[in-house]
Design goal:
The protein has 266 residues and is an alpha/beta fold. It folds into two domains: 21-104 and 180-263, HAD superfamily/HAD-like (Rossmann fold, 3-Layer(aba) Sandwich); 110-178, Alpha-Beta Plaits (2-Layer Sandwich). The protein has helices at 49-59, 72-79, 110-123, 147-161, 183-191, 211-219, 242-255; strands at residues 23-27, 64-67, 85-88, 93-96, 99-103, 128-131, 136-139, 165-170, 173-178, 200-205, 223-227, 237-239. Strand 1 (23-27), helix 1 and strand 2 (64-67) form a beta-alpha-beta unit. The N and C termini lie far apart (45 Å).
C-alpha cells in the first residue's frame, strides 16, 4: 500500500481562483450525516440519505466522498448497498472507484496502547474503547466526569508512542491516528484525482477533527461548512444541525441541482 501524501506537498492544495465551477462534495459522517450517538455503534442513518447521495454523486460526475474518522468497512455496512469514495480513519485509508489507493501502516505500539485503554475502560463505567485496527479511540460521552482522567491517559500514551502517531481530540473522544493522516491531506489527495480535479471543493463537518479539512478547502478557494454553532471554527459557513444538511441533500437529489450556494444559509 502507498502512504498518504503530506498536506504541504499534496497536489491541488494551491489556491483555486474561480468561484463558479462545479463542486466536489466531501462529507463527514458522525455529527454531519447522522446525529452524535451515546456510543459509536448507536448511530442511525436516515434511510433516504444513501440513495440521495448516490443520485448526487452521479450529478457531480463522481466527485462525492465521505471523509470520516470511521473505518471504510463500517461506513460500507451503514450505507449498503450503496458504495462511495471514502477517506476513512481521518484519512489513514482512502478508497477511490472501489480500490484502496492509500493506506497508512499500523503502528507497532498500537497493541500495547489498546491494552492500556481496555484496562481503563474495564475499571470505569461509561468509558468505551473503539478499536479501528490502524487507530483506536477512547470515548467518555457516557462518563463526562472522567474527561480529565481520560485525556491524561491518552496524552501519556501518545508521548510513549512517539512521532509515528498523532493524538486527535474531538467531542468527548480522543484517538490515536497515524501521524501523516488527516482529513485535510485526504481532501487534497482526492482533489488531485480525475473525478475531483478542477472542481470547487465543499467540505461539511462538525468537530475539531474537521478543522484541518476546513483550512485546506479554504486555501483551495472552496466552501467549508460547520454543523452547529458551539465553538469557533475555520469554516466559512454554518448549518444548524445534521437535519438541516439532510434537507439540503434530499432536496438537491430531487431537484437535480447542487452548488456551493446550496449550503450558504442566511
Amino acid at each position: 500500500m502507498t502512504t498518504l501524501i503530506e498536506l504541504d506537498t499534496a497536489p491541488g492544495s494551491r489556491k483555486i481562483a474561480s468561484a463558479d465551477r462545479e463542486i466536489a462534495l466531501f462529507l463527514d459522517f458522525d455529527g454531519t450525516l447522522v446525529e452524535i450517538a451515546p456510543s459509536p455503534e448507536d448511530v442511525h442513518l436516515d434511510r433516504r440519505v444513501a440513495p440521495a447521495l448516490t443520485v448526487l454523486r452521479a450529478q457531480l460526475g463522481g466527485a462525492l466522498a465521505l471523509v470520516s474518522g470511521r473505518p471504510i468497512g463500517f461506513l460500507d455496512d451503514i450505507l449498503a448497498p450503496h458504495r462511495f469514495d471514502i477517506a476513512g480513519l481521518h484519512g489513514a485509508q482512502i478508497r477511490v472507484d472501489g480500490e484502496i489507493r492509500s493506506q497508512a501502516e499500523a503502528h507497532e505500539g498500537m497493541r500495547a496502547a489498546l491494552r492500556d485503554l481496555v484496562r481503563f475502560a474495564n475499571s470505569h463505567v461509561g468509558i468505551i474503547v473503539e478499536d479501528k485496527r490502524m487507530s483506536v479511540a477512547l470515548h467518555w460521552r457516557l462518563a463526562p466526569t472522567l474527561e480529565d482522567e481520560a485525556q491524561a491517559l491518552m496524552r501519556g500514551i501518545a508521548a510513549r508512542m512517539g512521532p509515528g502517531m498523532r493524538l486527535q481530540e474531538g467531542k468527548s473522544v480522543a484517538e490515536f491516528v497515524p501521524a501523516g493522516a488527516s482529513k485535510g491531506s485526504a481532501i487534497a489527495w482526492l482533489m488531485a484525482t480525475p473525478a475531483y480535479a478542477g472542481r470547487q471543493p465543499v467540505f461539511i463537518g462538525d468537530d475539531i477533527t474537521d478543522e484541518d479539512g476546513f483550512k485546506v478547502v479554504n486555501a483551495m478557494g472552496g466552501v467549508s461548512v460547520r454543523i452547529g454553532a458551539d465553538r469557533e471554527s475555520h469554516a466559512t459557513c454554518r448549518l444548524p444541525s445534521p437535519t438541516a444538511l439532510r434537507h439540503i441533500l434530499l432536496e438537491a437529489a430531487e431537484s437535480g441541482h447542487l452548488s456551493a450556494a446550496s449550503f450558504k444559509q442566511d
